[in-house]
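Worked example

This section walks through a single chain of length 421. The input is the sequence exactly as stored; nothing has been trimmed or padded.
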Amino acid sequence: MEKNNKLTIIPVMLCFFAMGFVDLVGTASNYVKSDLGLNDVQANIFPSLVFFWFLIFSVPTGVLMNKIGRKKTVLISLVVTLFSLLLPVFGESYGLMLVITFISLLLPLFGESYVLMLIAFSLLGIGNALMQTSLNPLVSTVIKGGNLASTLTFGQFIKAIASFLVPYLAAWGATATLPNFGLGWRVLFPIYMVVGIIATLLLLGTPIEEETVIVENQLPARNVMDEYIACFKLLGIPIVLLSFMGIMCHVGIDVGVNTTAPKILQEKLHLPLNDAIQSTSFYFLFRTLGCLTGSIILRFLKTRTFFIISVAMMALSMVGLYFGTSEWMLYTSIALVGYGNSNVFSMVFAQALQGVPTKKNEVSGLMIMGLFGGTIFPLIMGFASVRMGQSGAILVMAIGVIYLFTYIKRLIPVPSSESEK
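Given that input, the structure is written out below as tokens.
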């Protein structure tokens, strides 16, 4: 059984890699801005569109898991992935995200018009919304017991690798360091598309035995719309609402740095885009290190203490990005926000689940919906940067950091994986 689990986890981890495709939006939006001569408001619509779909699809996916179970969701979606190129209007399965992700990576190969890129990033956002909501429960089907937390953390590490590689692949394609087949920076789309196909085929060929789904957390109402409404009513619980806002700030800052770091270097250091874009990889490098070390640190350090340290690092980063004028100070600030923001999601997510332990599926859907912050922040940052330069964008992110400071008083002890076991 353990051998089967080890083999099964391989395609699941490849799906985490596919989850990281969403972070190409930061790099892509900078190149599209340059190629099409867009301003910051127009360019920031791309990441906003990607994360808008988390608002629409996250909660329905959580309700769906209560209805049909995880295994059926995966199997139905894989059939759609392999045998259909048509997108159902109301698709809700896990594998549909693979279809949508595949098509969203395919569209940019046919051109770089503004409308075409808007469609591509919208589809990428829909696929990733479904993936983020359903992939974690899929992992819990494969891995049980005390190893679940560490497996999820490792999955985030795999996801971060995909994010880390994006700027390098785009820059290599733009400078023709790699064969780019006339696509320029857009060569990263077919490369990731091939990985997505491999992940789909491997997951299709991997048997995953799932026990009969027993919905322990089922809401009293049986009507789907009633369940949907009852799910949103959970936002009336203070810890759920405040955690939802915390995740919005976390993701807003994450997408903001991903999108804005190269622009800050271009503005303050007058670097060309192909050089400034490396700051995005530098950011994801420290996010990756944060994911790896955070799970270890949280085993012996209180969540509250580590959260305070993390947010303090983010605050120092905002100061450095705003006032910094030298390369070392700006890169140090990017490293601080990368590491500091890397574990905020997991800590806030755990607080929400612990606050309402009998409604885990529903709370999970709401927390993933909080990724909608990746829509709000870039839009506001775009308007602020048009008026004030990139300093305005930094101030918007700083507001998110201030909110995370206010969240500290809501933190309560979270049981370790050993105590849960």
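What to look for: The chain has 20 helices and no strands.
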